[in-house]
């Protein structure tokens, strides 16, 4: 049942199907129907019925020991999704290489009109702030997405600035100019907030396995947004003192020179030295340039 012309109410049956597939995708090993039902707080009969339908469609496979894993039909869907997203060539290779060099999580988001969609990320070295996983959509609102907006046209920049509180707009306009010049945005937060962001991000990731927890996940994400701070100015970054850094972003351009993606790393450290900041910035911007040329 839709609400108005632009929104819709959640569908619990659909949420259950999606959560089962998501749980199987998140696990390193197959799971029984009972495992999935207990983890997702679903009835075992409902879980069994959903798995039976998914097995018929090839979306899951039932193994001889009665455990389930993702099925071959999803590989075709994933391939089509990658084609539709038009990711830069070897996007995951670039992300994995960047993450290994800077020793923290890396992610790529697609800027699509008024939203950011996370389309690729590493999963072996740390995690990106905000408790983000592939497929998550966030509204394109200031100060988020600043590295892409900084390289976009005046109309896009003005729409973005209009989403910010009036008393922040002059500062953000200056930061747009700065980011366009430097090619990178470095986000700070109070040192105490770094640990809070990290813990809250883990909470969001934990909640992602429960179909009934979407509202709570959104509330926790909003809490993270409130503590994530604002981008540093060049003057602040030139300080010889260690600075707390939550994450850094840079724009990635398509073959026509249009900024389409935002590359992000998440150090989530309360004290980053000047030399370490320079290394982070150099690695991030070099990878963004390499992905833009792919």
Secondary structure layout plus pairing:
Layout: E1 2-3, E2 7-8, H1 12-26, E3 31-32, H2 33-40, H3 44-56, E4 60-62, E5 67-70, H4 73-85, H5 91-102, E6 105-112, E7 115-121, E8 137-139, H6 146-149, H7 154-162, H8 169-182, E9 185-187, H9 191-207, H10 214-227, H11 234-237, E10 243-245, E11 247-253, E12 259-266, E13 269-272, H12 274-293
Antiparallel strand pairs: 1-2, 3-5, 4-5, 6-7, 6-12, 7-8, 9-11, 10-13, 11-12
Bulk shape: elongated
* N-to-C CA distance: 43 Å
- Number of continuous helical runs: 12
> How much helix is in the residues?
40-55%
Question: Going across the major beta sheet, what is the strand order?
Answer: 8-7-6-12-11-9
Biggest sheet details: 6 strands, antiparallel
CATH class of the largest domain: Alpha Beta
Low-confidence spans: 1-7
Structural class: alpha+beta
- Number of strand segments: 13
CATH topology of the largest domain: Beta-Lactamase
What's the number of domains?
Answer: 2
Can you tell me the CATH architecture of the largest domain? Answer: 2-Layer Sandwich
Q: H/E order of the elements? A: EEHEHHEEHHEEEHHHEHHHEEEEH
Compute the average pLDDT: 86
Radius of gyration: 20 Å
Going by CATH, what is the homologous superfamily of the largest domain?
GAF domain
Fraction in beta strands: 15-25%
Oligomer: single chain
